[in-house]
Write a structure and sequence with these properties.
Layout lengths: L8 H15 L3 H9 L2 H11 L8 E5 L5 H8 L3 E6 L2 H6 L6 E3 L12 E7 L8 H11 E12 L6 H21 L2 H9 L7 H11 L1 E9 L4 E8 L2
Parallel strand pairs: 1-2, 1-4, 2-3, 4-5
Antiparallel strand pairs: 5-7, 6-7
Helix pairs in contact: 3-4, 6-9, 7-8
Length: about 230
């Protein structure tokens, strides 16, 4: 997959859906191995950073098998999972409220949710501007947004080690345990991801204020927090 151009437009949407359908059964296992389980800690922090009252209603966009959704439940919120891939939602454990849908056209009422989360999926959306507009639309005024996404450390040995792991070891693990093409595509798909300042500007244009960006664990991951403009 890395030797050919990355898909664009409708072809990208179709590829992402079929890819995640294929890797759904072992998605969580490979994720845990890829991050040494650190992704669970990062999700806990991302949910607590929403600073929402107990029993708030939160939409988990691109929920996959529901890691973020379950963390929302653990912290006392009511969560709905939405994802493009039926198989990912089907593989999710304890997801009573789940909707299969494209995040750029959510079949949900406006100003319905107190919070929105999304984990490691921004680069998989075909129309990221439309997705941010939809996130803003379904949030009530003053609602909170918490996003996690891949990143890379600043130049130096930490970045060299990260690239070796992410671009070489992760595809090898994925090939052994799941789908070879998918886990070669996923590292390559970071090429879709805009730089942090561009993402901040896109969120502002979509209707978010107080957008905050921070690096997680030296830049292995990144988090965006924002508030829906009243």
């Amino acid at each position: 997959m890395t030797s050919t151009p990355l898909p664009q437009g409708d072809a990208k949407t179709a590829y992402v859906r079929s890819m995640f359908d294929a890797i759904a059964p072992r998605y969580e296992l490979v994720n845990t191995l890829m991050t040494f389980g650190l992704d669970a800690r990062w999700r806990r922090r991302a949910v607590s950073d929403l600073r929402l009252a107990p029993h708030s209603v939160v939409l988990d966009v691109a929920a996959g098998t529901g890691s973020f959704t379950r963390e929302l439940h653990r912290q006392g919120h009511l969560a709905i999972a939405v994802d493009l891939s039926f198989n990912m939602l089907h593989a999710g454990r304890s997801l009573p409220e789940r909707v299969q849908a494209d995040a750029s056209a959510l079949p949900l009422r406006s100003a319905t949710f107190d919070g929105v989360t999304c984990g490691y999926a921004l680069r998989n959306f075909t129309d990221l501007e439309a997705v941010f507009l939809e996130m803003a639309r379904v949030l009530r005024p003053g609602g909170r947004l918490s996003l996690l996404e891949t990143a890379q450390p600043p130049p130096g040995l930490w970045r060299v080690g990260f690239r070796l792991w992410f671009q070489r070891v992760v595809p090898f693990i994925g090939s052994l345990l799941s789908d070879r093409d998918a886990y070669h595509y996923l590292p390559a798909s970071t090429a879709y991801l805009p730089d942090a300042p561009v993402l901040v500007a896109m969120l502002n244009r979509a209707g978010f204020s107080a957008v905050n960006h921070r690096r997680v664990l030296g830049g292995l991951s990144q988090q965006f927090l924002a508030t829906r403009v009243s």
